[in-house]
Amino acid sequence: MNLFNIISELEKVDPEIMDRLSHRRSALSALGSLGKKMALAAAPIAIGSAFNKAVGQNTLNTANEVLNYALLLEYLEEDFYAQALAAPTLAANLTSGSAARGAIQTIKNHETAHVNLLKAALGTNANPRPASFDFGNAFLTYPTFLTFAQAFEDTGVRAYKGQATKIQSANQPAILQTALQIHSVEARHAAHIRYMRRGAAAGGQSNIMPWVVGKEANGAPDAVYGAGNPAATFPAEDNITQATLTLTTGLGATYTAADVSAAFDEGLDNTTVTTIARSVVTF
After folding, report:
1. Apex 108 CA angle, 208 and 236, nearest 5
2. Nearest CA to 46 among 2, 11, 5, 1?
3. Domain range annotation of the chain
4. How far apart are CA 229 and CA 223, in angstroms?
5. Which residues touch 250 (CB under 8 Å, ≥6 apart)?
6. SS3 category, 189
7. With 80 as the cut, is the pLDDT of residue 36 above it?
8. 235 pLDDT band (50/70/90 cuts)?
9. Other beta carbons within 10 Å of 51
10. How far is the C-alpha of 209 from the C-alpha of 123, rounded, in Å?
11. What pLDDT digit, counting tens, does each position of 17-31 carry?
12. Rounded to whole angstroms, how far apart are CA atoms 158 and 220?
């Protein structure tokens, strides 16, 4: 989930990684249907080749920590959806062949693909999966499960966006393209989960939009939509100022704060992302 930070760290020891990344993505796309589907997340494969240089410069620990942090987050999300699909309390809603189960299974499969790619990049340096993830009451009811899912997905989207400024290489278009491809898929996950919460089985919450409006948590932890650290760099989702302009009045027309906040998403720093995760999951 923190691809931007991964690249930023490894660029320090391997400035040529951008060129190889572009080459690896081209090679993957030639492998056929499966390769094309996986190409959008191909960055970790190229990252793995940087390890030899990292070892030579005694910076492997830093690279390991960054990659394994991303892997831990992917483990968490994958396990969350796997537990949901197996939870007896959700069986009545996630029935075989239903659209709801199909959606959750698809999202789970995406997370599994991310786990496998990160493990391939780390090789023997990959940390093992934690013995267990305890999501507390996340699977108590179908609406509760979807509330937790919204929190995880919305946090993930903010985590990606929060690292965008870390890409400062002159060759950034190749990696930025790949990162945006991953980020857009994560955002679609978030929107679909929010749409599922509007369904009758989840309480028919028609006030929940597929996009984020202000700091409306809709039952998710408030921190998911609050400011990060520092707040000036990572403002809360109700921010109405972009590029120094106050957009409720600065565009020659009057817009509501809700309209402005919904039109722009805000990033979130790594520390806040980690704090949010550990506030709702025990591992």
Report:
1. 40
2. 11
3. 3-280
4. 12
5. none
6. helix
7. no
8. very high
9. 21
10. 41
11. 444 444 434 433 433
12. 14
| Helical pair 172-197 and 99-122, crossing angle rounded to 10 deg | 150
Burial class (CB in 10 A: 0-12, 13-18, 19+), 166: middle
| Token duo for residue 74 | 């992917």
Share of the chain above pLDDT 90, in %: 44
pLDDT at residue number 283: 84
3 state SS of 30: coil
Contact 136, 80 (CB under 8 A): no
Q: Which residue type is seen at 83?
A: Q
Predicted confidence (pLDDT) at residue 169 exceeds the cutoff of 60: no
Name the residue type at position 69: Y
Q: What count of other Cβ atoms lies within 10 Å of the Cβ of residue 34?
A: 10
pTM of the model: 0.72
Lowest average pLDDT, out of 16-30, 201-215, 220-234, goes to 16-30
Please report the pLDDT score of residue 202 as a whole number. 96
All residues at 6 or more sequence positions from 19 whose CB lies less than 8 Å from its CB, including other chains:
171
Tell me how far apart the terminal alpha carbons of the chain are, to the nearest angstrom: 18
Cα gap 130→37, rounded to integer Å: 28
Phi-psi region of 204 (alpha: psi -120 to 50; beta: other; left: phi over 0): left
Q: What count of residues does the chain have?
A: 283
Calculate the CA 248 to chain-centre distance: 29
Of all helices (H) and strands (E), which one includes residue 242? Answer: strand 241-242
What φ, ψ does residue 264 adopt, rounded to 5°? -140, 130
What the block records as the tokens of 57 is 């410069």
